[in-house]
Amino acid sequence: MKHIVVDPINRIEGHLRVEIKVDEATGKVEDALSSGTAWRGIELVLKGRDPRDAWLFAQRICGVCTTVHALGCLRAVEDALGIEIPKNANYIRNIIAASQMIHDHIVHFYHLHALDWVSPVAALKADPAATAALQNTVLEKYSLKFEGPVSFDTSAYAKDFPKATTAYFREIQNKIKAIVESGQLGIFAGHYWDHPDYNVLPPEAHLMAVSHYLNMLDRQRDLVYSHLVFGGKNPHPHYIVGGMPCSISMNDMNAPVNTERLALVGTSVNLGIDLVNNFYIPDLLAIGDLFVKAGYVDGGGLAGQRVLSFGDFPEEKYNGVANGDYFKNLLVNSSGVVENFGQGVAKATFYPLEGKDLTDPNVLAEGVEHSWYNYPEAGKDLHPWSGVTSPQYTGPKEGTKTNWKYLDETGKYSWIKTPKWNGKMAEVGPLAKYIVVYTKVRQGLIQQPTWAEKLIVDQIDAVSKLLNLPPETWMPTTVGRTAIRGLDAQLSAYINKYFFDKLINNIKAGDTTVANTAKWDPATWPKEAKGVGLHEAPRGGLSHWVTIKDGKIDNYQAIVPSTWNACPRDDKSGHGAYEASMMETKVKIAEKPLEILRVLHSFDPCLACATHLFDKEGKEITVVRTDPYL
Amino acid sequence: MEKRDTLWGLFQKKNISRRDFLKTCVALTSMMGLSTELLPQVIEAAEKKPLPPVIWLHGHECTGCDETFIRSQSPLASDLVLNMIALEYMDVLAATAGEQLEHHLEETMKQYSGQYLLIFEGAVPEAENGIYCMVGGKPIIETLKRVAKDAAAIIENGSCAAWGGIQAARPNPTKSVSVSDVISGKPIIKVPGCPPIPEVLTGTIMHYVLFGQLPPVDNQGRPKQFFGNRIHDTCYRRPFFDSGMFVEKFDDMASKAGWCLYKVGCRGPEAYNSCGNMRWWNGMSYPIQSGAPCVACAGKNFWDNDPFYERLPNIPMPNTIVNADKVGAVLAGVTTAGVVAHGIASYVQHKQHEAKAEKEQQGNDQNKPERGQNE
Fold this sequence. Notes:
The complex is a heterodimer. By secondary structure, chain A is α+β, with helices and mostly antiparallel strands. Chain A has one domain: Cytochrome-c3 Hydrogenase, chain B (Orthogonal Bundle). Chain A is 38% helix and 14% strand. The termini of chain A are far apart. In chain B, the strands form 4 sheets. Chain B has a 5-stranded parallel beta sheet with strand order 2-1-3-7-9, sandwiched between helices. In chain B, strands 4-8 form a two-stranded antiparallel sheet. The interface between A and B is large, with 116 and 117 residues.
């Protein structure tokens, strides 16, 4: 048995450490531990602040999935104060969220995940002419020809296609060669490029993928013009409680949004469709197909047992989340929990999760058994609205408090809490969302699917046909988790276009309102209020929980996707998603745990999100001098 | 040293002509905001200066400053990472992880001792010996001190590294501080912003690559070429301020017309940044252009200058205090005089601000790091 520590985990947001115990003879991972190794205390910082400012603070939980925590926070505050946002604000927020989804998924696949599958070193052996031929084959064989609804077709033809010439691939290959020969490998340095898994793909596939790594690095920025136009910047675009700050006018020269601004967003919306359809989907399915054919269908963990999702993209206005209205007109109604999808969709069990379920402490709660916190009543989990956190750092099992050797899997070992649904662990993410929608539609629980829900089912069926495997075999795996994220990017590209067209139509109908300021003044608020905001973020179901008292924030909690997935174990409910998936992954060479990096990256970990703290008891608040001119 | 390549060397390897190389130098000169007189220096720098190795560490942060880095259009992040710097350690983009990554950090520090640029992103939590941010099983504060020791220069990337940022906002549960609060005796520069404008961050790195030293800084240690002016003084909505034409509430007629956001909380009058002139993404927009009041995200401790929708305190003017309502009332009639009066007010305010900051620095900054060398 070999005890392997991987810290820091690379190509993620934040600070993550894992420890695994591997049986070297069989490659089986006997135990796996996932630890969030930092916390910043943003919820504590939020205490006592103006609820109208809260989204700015919450947004800084994460700059990779930028904007998603702002959205979760706004929805929570608006739920608490009973604020209904105007149609245009809903459309604009949906456009910002959909474009974020596309961007986040593309950057994850090409820049955070690709190097688990492809190697620049292997690309040196490729024949540039054969690579050009491969590129053509991949485009023909692995494209998914789906379309979304379009009411204004503003793109004459797909502008962005992969280059498929010998000269181009030779140029890229020469550059890689120059870097390798220089001895300064930069970001490619120090890795185990000799790992046998880098032989699964032919050299030409490596060269093609590395070229696209560079193409997408240069193009990703242009996917989120909507953040610039509607929110003024990216990362961290601006919003306001009650809607958006970007007033619309076709009569004023300095208006934040006019025809030219909308055209800019439209260009970016069209680009999203092109990049996903012509680069991401073909690359993803080509690589995935070869790995599945080579027998890589492990890494499932919790996915086949229990997944959870909240659903998103309200088509029209809603008047609350906790009251259930949010769920009534979702474009992607993935709300709910599905158990045992791994046994096939017919045998899977669906449980609803909406409205009053959200406010029931028996349904949603967090525990701290293995987290560096203390609860007032040992063993009693708490609902986020009454969440308490007092830190209790106990250090490692071996080593010192400031120099760890091994963490203590029998005690506390992470700054991440353990969220539970009905006392059980669940996996979240695009895969969870797809499993829930597929199950609901196939079992007839959704009688009339929206175009987006229908597209999800069609995508899953198309990929099952391509791989010649049933969904329950390929979906709850490392490859499946990664593949579904790509399908989700395609879905999001069309959702982006759908709400962009809705916005145009609504402006055309004469409605330019973007903010509801009727309750802007705190004097209009109730003395006490609480709310929940949901968002189906790129990494899965996100929930923000706020309580407001006397016009200030009294308590703030966020249960984010990576909390669900990266959480430490629970003695009753078992392992969280990261740990469970690592334990279902074979490791060939213990000292070079490429498979562990691959399965972890398949979740797209986001650790600053996952670790959070709020001390409800309220420590002494230091007054900071705020001279505005210094 | 022979392993480190020059920009000209790279052009030669790629068989790109001398003419194209010189054209690139001209483009770089204008991109850096430098006068054409400096072109020979740019050419010389690009011919001779070896590519600097870079170590990029993360403390308490949200990774938004890495995202801003890859959003840069001029230079493109790909050109920077593959051609202009040797990004030897950066866990967000690195192929490898864990022991192999940490081993490479040690090797890089040894091989390029005294030569590497350290970019630090995020705040440094000091509480309880740094246990609130552990990387590789050790507190990041220890790693920072160790890596900073033999760095040629340090960039504090983003408002967290430069000032402590959001986790340092009251009550600062982890006792987070800036890099220069714990590191001294090194050339160090602040590139604040939450996040910084992409081209401000990459422009600072680019300057270092081309000239081999950090760019000239202001009295707070920020590059003058990017933080020399208030957003208020470069804002396209400034004429509305001067004319007393204000947004009173979001989405009112004035919001649609794009009037001044001062009365709904805009921090433009105290924000030093390039949002007004460069704007975000090569002129595409900035928060004010999208109707959102500036929160001065590059300012020191801006998080505790809330609530953000309450307007700034009264504007100081020579010998009196006049608030925006009065400015509006007076200036509605006498616009030209108002512009002049406010121009003086801004200038005086700027001078007061600088004088105060300098005084403080002289008073208690004896152990502070050396600021940029071109001062």
